[in-house]
Design a protein that fits this description.
By secondary structure, the chain is of the alpha/beta class. The protein is built from nine helices and seven strands.
C-alpha cells in the first residue's frame, strides 16, 4: 500500500493498458480517477465497471468523462478530481488512438485526430494537473509513449510523430519541474496485447512475435507494474527518462 493517500488520474482508463494501470495503482493504495471519452456508450459502461471493481476490492475510485483534446473539458476533468479528493498526485497520460495508413494515403483528419489525442491531450492534462502538484511540491507524471516514437514504423507516421513528441515533451517538462520534486517519465511499450493488436491479421502477429527475444507478446499488466513503480517513492530519483518495455526487441 505504498501509494496510500495518493490521488491518481489515468486517462483512457476504461480498457486495455489504462485499465491495468488503474487496477495496479488502486492495489498500491492510490485513489483512482478513471477517465473515458463518451464516443461509444460502451466506454462509460467499461469505466463504471472498473470503478465498481476497484471499490469491491476495497479501493476508492471515480469515473470522469472528458475529451482530453478539448482544453475546457480537460480542465474541468482535473477540477472535478480536485473537488472530490482535493489534489492530484499522479497523472498517467495513457489515452491514445491510431489511424494507420501510409503517408501518401493519409487524410488530414487522420493526422490531426492522432496528434490531438496522443500529444495535445497529454499537454493539456499535464498543464492542468501540475498546478496541484506544484502546490504540494510532489508529483508523478507518467506518459505512455511507444517504441514507434523511438524507431518509427511503416504506416504509422502520425502515431510515431505523436509518441516521439510525447518523449520530447516528457524530457522538457522533467527539466522544468525537477526543482518542485515532480518527476516526469515516459514508458514506451512494444507489442502489447490490447484491442488494437487483436485486430491485426494472423500473419502480421506471427511476424511480430518472431522479432521478440522473450517469444511472447507483452500484457497490459507488464506495463502497469512499471507505471506503479515510477509512481512510487522508490522511483524518486528517476526523471526525464524513457523506459522501453518490449521483450527485448530494441535493446
Amino acid at each position: 500500500m505504498e501509494l496510500e493517500g495518493k490521488v491518481s488520474l489515468v486517462t483512457g482508463a476504461s480498457r486495455g493498458i489504462g485499465k491495468a494501470i488503474a487496477l495496479k495503482l488502486a492495489s498500491f493504495g492510490a485513489r483512482v480517477a478513471v477517465n473515458y471519452v463518451a464516443i461509444e456508450a460502451s466506454n462509460k459502461v467499461d469505466a463504471d465497471n472498473l470503478v465498481e471493481s476497484i471499490t469491491r476490492l476495497g479501493g476508492e475510485a471515480m469515473s470522469v468523462e472528458a475529451d482530453i483534446r478539448d482544453s475546457e473539458a480537460a480542465q474541468a476533468m482535473v477540477e472535478q478530481v480536485n473537488d472530490k479528493w482535493s489534489k492530484i498526485d499522479i497523472l498517467v497520460n495513457n489515452a491514445g488512438i491510431n489511424r494507420d495508413t501510409l503517408l501518401l494515403r493519409m487524410s488530414d483528419n487522420a493526422w490531426d485526430d492522432v496528434i490531438n489525442t496522443n500529444l495535445r491531450g497529454a499537454y493539456l492534462c499535464t498543464k492542468f494537473a501540475l498546478r496541484s502538484m506544484m502546490r504540494q511540491e510532489w508529483g508523478r507524471i507518467i506518459s505512455i509513449s511507444s517504441v514507434a516514437g523511438i524507431v518509427g514504423n511503416t504506416g504509422q507516421s502520425n502515431y510515431a510523430a505523436s509518441k516521439g513528441g510525447l518523449i520530447a515533451f516528457t524530457k522538457s517538462v522533467a527539466r522544468e519541474m525537477g526543482s518542485r520534486n515532480i518527476t516526469v517519465n515516459a514508458v514506451a511499450p512494444g507489442y502489447i496485447i490490447t484491442g488494437m493488436t487483436d485486430k491485426l491479421p494472423s500473419e502480421t502477429r506471427e511476424a511480430m512475435l518472431a522479432m521478440i527475444p522473450l517469444q511472447r507478446f507483452g500484457q497490459p499488466e507488464d506495463v502497469a507494474e512499471l507505471v506503479a513503480f515510477l509512481a512510487s517513492e522508490r522511483a524518486g530519483y528517476i526523471t526525464g527518462q524513457v523506459i522501453t518495455i518490449d521483450g527485448g526487441v530494441f535493446p
